[in-house]
Structures are given as C-alpha cells and as structure tokens.
C-alpha cells in the first residue's frame, strides 16, 4: 500500500493456502483481485455476476471456494494506492457484498451463513466509521512494515516509473 505521493505505508499480509484463505467465508476472501490466475475452464464456469458490482470478485470466490483450490504468493507483487477512503463508497460496497453473499447462502439453504455475513459486515461497517471518523486504525486490516530489502525494491521501482514533471 502506498500514498498518492508514492510513499510506502506497508503491506497487507495474505494467507498462502486454501484452508486459511477460506476459513471465514462470511468475512471475505483476502486475495488481491488483480493478481488472480487460473485455468480458463474455471473462469468460464464461475463467471462474474453483474448484480454484485463492487463485490463481484468476493461473490465469485464465495460461489466457488468449496469446489476450487486457492493460494497466494507470500511476497507482495502488487502495489495499491490508498488515498482517503470514502465512507459512503465503503458502505455501498459492504451492502452489495452482504446482499450478494446472503442471496447465494440462502439459495444454497445456508441460513446460518447468511446471518454470519450480515453480522460480520455490520460490525465491519461500525469499524469503518470508527476508523475514518475517529482514527481508530486497529479496526482496519493491519499493515505490516516493509523490511529493508522490500523498501529498497519499492524505492527503486518508484524511481523507474516516475514521470518527469513538465517545466
């Protein structure tokens, strides 16, 4: 994660094996979406659903996790710019996430799972409010500090991609 000026803030750790990634499906799957790779047959079988816009990746993972095998690389290979978070956008995303996953749970007769989704997402929304309005950062995913080697790699990468300012 980095700020708009390129300063590194840290990185989000991800679980590397399927069992850990899928241990709390009602809470979400922590897999950086732009890095997904898989067999074309899987993507043809599990297509995005347009009604889940803003949560389509999580909806897809939720529908497929019991029949798939997920994994993540332990090293960070993707940078996200993290500017100011907008509360309304976060609420809308949580609402769409909850609606899509609850609908999927109910169609599979997993009523308890639907309740877990609603409760966890409600608590996360409260955490978002406390984080954004009062700066209680412990309620967000904890960023890990970059070690020296990763910091040097990030600095070198940033220098390579800098676009010179016009005079």
* Multimerization state: single chain
Give the overall shape.
globular
Mean pLDDT: 84
Radius of gyration: 18 Å
**Which class do the helix and strand fractions yield?**
mainly alpha
Report the biggest beta sheet as strand number plus sense, adding barrel if it closes: none
Helical amount among residues, as a percent range? 40-55%
Return the domain count. 1
Number of strands: 0
SSE order, as H and E? HHHHHH
Short description:
The chain has 167 residues and is mainly α.
Q: Would you kindly provide a written description of the structure presented here, covering whatever features stand out?
A:
There is one protein chain. With 167 residues, the chain is mostly helical. 47% of the residues lie in helices and 0% in strands. The chain is built from six helices and no strands. The chain has helices spanning 18-21, 40-45, 56-64, 87-107, 111-134, 148-161.
């Amino acid at each position: 994660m980095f700020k708009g000026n390129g300063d590194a803030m840290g990185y989000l750790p991800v679980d590397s094996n399927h069992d850990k990634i899928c241990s709390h499906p009602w809470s979400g799957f922590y897999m950086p979406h732009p890095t997904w790779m898989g067999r074309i047959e899987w993507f043809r079988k599990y297509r995005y659903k347009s009604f889940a816009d803003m949560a389509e990746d999580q909806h897809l993972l939720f529908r497929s996790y019991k029949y798939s095998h997920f994994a993540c690389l332990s090293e960070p290979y993707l940078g996200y710019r993290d500017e100011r978070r907008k509360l309304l956008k976060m609420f809308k995303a949580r609402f769409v996430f909850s609606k899509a996953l609850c609908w999927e749970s109910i169609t599979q007769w997993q009523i308890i799972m639907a309740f877990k989704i609603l409760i966890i997402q409600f608590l996360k929304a409260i955490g978002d409010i406390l984080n954004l309005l009062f700066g209680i950062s412990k309620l967000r995913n904890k960023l890990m500090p970059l070690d020296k080697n990763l910091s040097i790699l990030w600095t070198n990468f940033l220098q390579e991609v800098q676009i010179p300012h016009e005079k």
